[in-house]
Design brief:
8-stranded antiparallel barrel; disordered N terminus; about 200 residues; about 35% strand; 3-stranded mixed sheet; single chain; alpha+beta; about 15% helix
Length: about 200
């Protein structure tokens, strides 16, 4: 999903975006799982120039390289499970001293034959917190030149984040942004590529 990849990269440089970010991770060590079904190279179904490559995990941490035609973003990914639902917590590895590292959440809706993922909808979250600021702890980064570009940063603890996510897990409005990745097909072997000719 081009929108997600671009905004993930933008968030790293503190450019206002539309991706829900959190200061704390969405998981603790007890929820971590190995999810071999996501490993490998995937291609965005709507944007074939965008690839997602999940490397073999080490101690539950998996390196994700989000690549487009002109740039690549490297993220650390942890698969975890809450009440039977698998999620991915994405954390940028491209950090510097001036940037507060952010966590991003994806819900894993399907792993085969394609990988289907959903992200929390920022417009839904903004409306929820406008009507009920106490719904979850957060901070609003103001954009004085363009209030519509104000950015919400979740500041809740991991336990509070998990409770919030589970409370809205079945809310279709909260997870409107779904996208699909297809596995990259290996090159077809021919007699010539096998060296038989």
């Amino acid at each position: 999903m081009r929108r997600f990849a671009v905004l993930m990269s933008a968030a790293v440089t503190m450019v206002a975006g539309c991706v829900v970010t959190s200061v704390c991770p969405y998981y603790t060590s007890k929820e971590l799982i190995h999810e071999p079904a996501i490993q490998g190279r995937w291609i965005n179904c709507k944007n074939p120039a965008e690839t997602w490559t999940f490397d073999q995990p080490t101690n539950f941490a998996c390196r994700l390289t989000l690549a487009e035609e002109t740039k690549a973003t490297v993220l650390e990914t942890h698969a975890f499970k809450l009440n039977g639902q698998v999620f991915l917590d994405l954390f940028s590895r491209e950090q510097d001293y001036h940037v507060i590292p952010a966590h991003y959440l994806l819900r894993v809706d399907q792993t085969a034959p394609s990988l289907k993922l959903s992200e929390l909808d920022d417009a839904w979250l903004t409306a929820l917190l406008t009507n009920n600021p106490a719904a979850i702890r957060h901070h609003v980064v103001q954009n004085s030149g363009n209030p519509a570009a104000n950015r919400i940063i979740l500041t809740a603890s991991t336990a509070e984040l998990q409770e919030f996510v589970l409370r809205h897990l079945k809310n279709s409005e909260a997870w409107k942004h779904a996208f699909e990745l297809r596995p990259e097909k290996p090159p077809v072997e021919t007699a010539q590529t096998k060296g038989l000719l």
